[in-house]
Design goal:
It is a single chain. The protein is mainly alpha-helical. The chain has 3 helices and no strands. The longest helix has 18 residues. The protein is globular and about 30 Å long.
C-alpha cells in the first residue's frame, strides 16, 4: 500500500496538503470497505483511480523542478 501511495503522489495533482491528506484517508477507508488486500496492486490502483475521479482530482504529471 505504501508503494502505491508514493506512486499516486506523482500521478495525481493535489491542489494542497489538506486535499492530499483527505484523499489518502478516504483511500484507506475505501480499501478496507472493499476488502482489497494491501498487496493487490491492481485492486488498489483501481480503487485509487476511481476515488480520484469521484473527487474531481486530475491525473496530471508532477511539474518538473
Amino acid at each position: 500500500m505504501d508503494k502505491i501511495k508514493e506512486n499516486l503522489k506523482d500521478m495525481i495533482y493535489f491542489p494542497d496538503e489538506r486535499t492530499r491528506e483527505a484523499y489518502f484517508a478516504d483511500l484507506e477507508k475505501a480499501v478496507a470497505d472493499a476488502g482489497v488486500d494491501h498487496d493487490d496492486a491492481d485492486g488498489l490502483t483501481k480503487i485509487a483511480n476511481k476515488l480520484a475521479d469521484d473527487k474531481g482530482l486530475t491525473h496530471e504529471p508532477k511539474a518538473a523542478d
